[in-house]
TrEMBL record:
This is G-protein coupled receptors family 3 profile domain-containing protein. Keywords: Membrane, Transmembrane, Transmembrane helix. It comes from Emiliania huxleyi (strain CCMP1516). The chain crosses the membrane at residues 30-50, 62-83, 104-123, 135-163. It comes from the Eukaryota. Residues 1-21 are annotated as: Disordered.
Length: 166
């Protein structure tokens, strides 16, 4: 097969996967900005948990998780905002910023496993004097949500495929 036939034109790369030009709605841009700003909470809480509590004594690497997971979310959110990467995959361009946002999304899922692994065993025990409930539940809920959503999508996909075969 001719390699030129497989290479998209520069104009096609500026369009979404459907081939249509995409103009992001203002409400999507506003939501992206809110998500980018909200993502700043996690690394700030991570730093505060190091300086104000002793969560690391109870859960090894708790503060490291909060800071690194939060920074990944901040970078991902700001890249999506600055480069106007749409939420809907069919509207996304095939360019470097979109690939970076997607890669950071996959990294977030892997990091969520880390977060759930260190926080879930302590759900019944905390909060305590050593670790503030605010820091603990921020880490647990964020990690659990980042893990539960893709897991629910995967289960739904498997169920849909199983029903399709019957």
């Amino acid at each position: 097969m001719d390699e030129e036939a497989l290479t998209p034109s520069p104009e096609a790369l500026e369009k979404g996967r459907s081939g249509e030009p995409y103009e992001m709605p203002a409400q999507d841009r506003a939501l992206m900005l809110v998500l980018a700003i909200a993502a700043l909470v996690m690394p700030v809480f991570g730093v505060l948990s190091v300086t104000q509590t002793d969560c690391d004594a109870i859960m090894r690497s708790f503060s490291a998780f909060m800071i690194t997971f939060g920074l990944v979310q901040v970078v991902k959110s700001f890249l999506a905002f600055v480069f106007k990467v749409p939420f809907e995959p069919s509207k996304q361009q095939k360019n470097l910023p979109t690939k970076c946002v997607s890669a950071l999304g996959l990294l977030s899922i892997a990091m969520a496993v880390w977060g759930v692994a260190i926080t879930a065993p302590r759900v019944g025990e905390l909060p305590s004097d050593e670790c503030s409930a605010m820091y603990f539940y921020t880490a647990f809920i964020t990690a659990a949500a980042n893990l539960a959503i893709p897991l629910a999508i995967a289960i739904g996909f498997c169920v849909a495929m199983a029903l399709r075969k019957t």
